[in-house]
Amino acid sequence: MTSLWRDGRFVRYWASSAVSQFGDRVSEVAVPLVAVTVLDASAGQVAVLTALAWAPNLLALVLGAWVDGRARKRRLLVLMDLVRAVVLLSLPVAHIWGHITLGQLYAVVLLGGLAGVVAGCAWQPLFARIVPRSSYVAANSSFSAARSASFVAGPAVGGGLVQALSAPVAVLADALSFVVSALLLGRAPVDEPAPAARSGTTGLALLRDAREGLLFVLRQPVLRAGLGCTTTINFFTFLAGTGMVVLFADRELRLSPGAIGLTLGIGATGSLLGALTAPWLSRRIGVGRCVAVGAVLFPAPFALAAVAGGPAWAGALLLGAAQFLVGLGVMWFDVPLNSLQAAVTPDALRSRVVGAYSTVNYGIRPLGAVVGGVLATTVGLRTTFVVVAVGGVLSVLWLLPSPVPGIRRLADLDDGPAAERTADTAHGEEGAHAA
Prior knowledge:
- This protein has helices spanning 8-38, 43-54, 60-68, 73-97, 102-130, 136-165, 167-186, 203-219, 221-237, 242-251, 257-285, 287-297, 302-306, 312-344, 350-379, 381-393, 417-434.
- The chain is mostly helical.
- It is a multi-pass membrane protein.
- Keywords: Cell membrane, Membrane, Transmembrane, Transmembrane helix, Transport.
């Protein structure tokens, strides 16, 4: 099998993703600091900022249907990079002129999030065009490794840029990363087939197309099990998101800001190791079993964090170990599951399937965060962590009765029950849609 790294198109797409991911880590530090340090935003206003960043995912189902009808998805991806670059660039420009406002900051995260959802829906069909099916796991591992590496170094660089240049000017780094990403994508042409004939272009037709994508996910056994498992894990792990972990480290473990940052950095190294080893584990125990192992290992270490205590160094060590295992489990779950999803999804439905997943999977995250806040207030952070561990581990029950654990290689899908069901479902949906 030819190495992916000898394929110039793959290298450009990977580099595009790596550069923009690193820029995103800078913005994740700088944008909230714009609100807090420049605009003196309250906790409620910061919460609105977070909610607006996630809100566009609720439109992903319809956006995915719209993207599936576009003929040139690479051009759309380039356009979304440029849109995000311009939107982010407005912050340092407004700051220089002394006219930056909270309303502008809200608009930036909302428009940037919207462009990100469209780009995510456009990316999956391109991934399937540039990566051979036999290399899906290796390719997803490479993309996830770049993302994990950005979490190791990006926040530190972001903090340094904010300190040296101010928060609004630091955002310029993310804007430039999208320009570089667009240039790289512009030099990586892909043979894109014309989209399948659609029943119309009206809003009603778009809703029908979106419904078709959602129904395909719910009827296809691998996708249905994956969505149920992922949504359950995300709900429970967002009960104790990064904010709760930081609060726990500060209030319960009495760690210094430097120690908290180091602890979170250790978690990021776990993600990097998980991304790099996911292909190896998938070969050793099978792709489906790797997903199941990750589904357990991802949330379970929160129980370890719940018992952290004693001297500050001991608490930091235990919390760091828990974060490392969480990061390892995330990647052992994500890399093979993303590969399975790509393998069982027909080309004509890829963007709609991504849209359906994003609407449900990301839509549950704000709800989990709200419930986690109520739970932590009423029963305490340690008990909340135990709930996360127990509830998250139970997500594996979605996988056990499905075909997923029995899938050793992606090639098994060519002749197995999942493949037959995929073909039958796609055929039935297309017929119903045409009628």
